[in-house]
Amino acid sequence: MLSSLSFIQPKAIHRQITDHVRGLILSGELPLDSKLPSAEKLAMDWKSNPTTVQNALAVLVKEGLLVRTPKRGTFVRKREEKLTCVGVYSGASIKDAPFLHAVNKALMDELHQAGIEMDLWVDSRPEDQRHEPWQPLVKAAENRWFQAFIGTETYESLFRWQRKLPVPTAFLGAPTSVPNNVGHDMRQFVEISLRELARQGCRSVGFIAPVLDASDSVNPEGYRVIAFDMLEHFMEIAGELGLTVKNDWMRVFEHHPDKVRGQERFGYEQFLNLWSQPEKPEGLLVHSDVVARGMVTAIREKQVRVPEDLKLVLHKNESIDLFCPMPVTFVVASEREMAQALIEQVQKQFRGESCERISLPFQLATHTNP
Fold it and tell me: Least CB-packed of 97, 120, 169, 333 within 10 Å?
């Protein structure tokens, strides 16, 4: 049965192998506890490459259809009919990251509503040790203590080993090339923000946003592409809308501050720099909400009248309070929708379905002076 496989172009060979073996397992032609031949033997039968075979079967290990036992081989295991437990990774530094805390809270609520247990793993190791696989977590995945895994902190030191866990995985903010990634649509963020400022009568606009720090990213060049693609889209849409943009109003080419206080200071200092220019924009777009918090402090210090002197569109996360004693427009990201998308990604893989990156949109919300 395993040897009867003819490859069809242009579909990827490893996907055809995965589909073929999955079909034999689900149909019962490969019964429970059946031992598969070695990857080398299968590669010879299929006129393929052993590494390709290994990668193809690894997908079925993640789905829970196969189990690899050291020194014994690969066996068909009993398929779990329902996703009942999801492991969620969190670094101990989450206390300093309100957004990640909010996402984890939303994950707990959404999993509970779906009747799925959330198994939270808090990694208390020093950050310089997290590039090594966390063995208790790896063993738990190998033993199927949880059937799927969600990583909400995506750094190279974590992502390199977490993506190899033998269960379905989903990641928040991984590179766009990763199919089980969930992220925000930053081009849509820029577009709806600029259109809103134009609707409010702005003829000139500025932008405050730290460029993502690529020093510890999974794919530094990929992150730079995202950041500069967003900036290019800003200029493109501003041009379409006839909005004036000056280099001195684009406070974006700074190193991304890692900590919350650093981001607040960034927003504070960059607004002061922008407002010291001889010419000032009529509208301003700000990302992220933490940067906006520091910028609001600077606006109050400079006694800038909003919206008379300046109209504002600010990024905001739905469940995190952003005190803003002035009328602005918020561009809101939903942690609940993010949690739902992450769960959807692991459920698809658990069912044996392929998944593609989920890019979540933002919503506009008017905030009046309290």
Answer: 120
CB atoms closer than 10 angstroms to residue 269: 16
C-alpha closest to that of 90 among 120, 60, 128, 110: 120
CA distances from 68 to 28, 33, 181, 214, 229 (A): 19, 11, 26, 36, 42
The DSSP 8-state label assigned to residue 129 in this structure reads G
Which of the four CATH numbers 3.40.1280.10, 1.10.10.10, 1.20.1330.10, 3.40.50.300 does domain 13-76 have?
1.10.10.10
Q: Note if the pTM is more than 0.90.
A: no
Q: Which amino acid appears at position 69 of this protein? A: T
- How far is it, in rounded angstroms, from Cα 162 to Cα 291? 30
Q: Alpha-carbon distance 264 to 296, whole Å?
A: 9
The tens digit of pLDDT for each residue in 341-367 reads: 999 999 999 888 888 999 999 999 988
Q: At 236, which amino acid appears?
A: E
Q: Please write down the HEC assignment for all residues of 128-148.
A: HHCCCCCHHHHHHHHCCCCCE
Cα–Cα nearest to 55, from 6, 24, 5, 17: 17
Q: Where in the chain is the domain with CATH 3.40.50.2300?
A: 85-183+337-360, 184-333+363-367
Looking only at the bridges linking them, the beta strands covering 283-286 and 250-251 are: unpaired
pLDDT digits (tens, 9 = 90+) for 228-281: 678 889 999 999 999 999 999 998 765 555 555 688 999 999 999 999 999 999
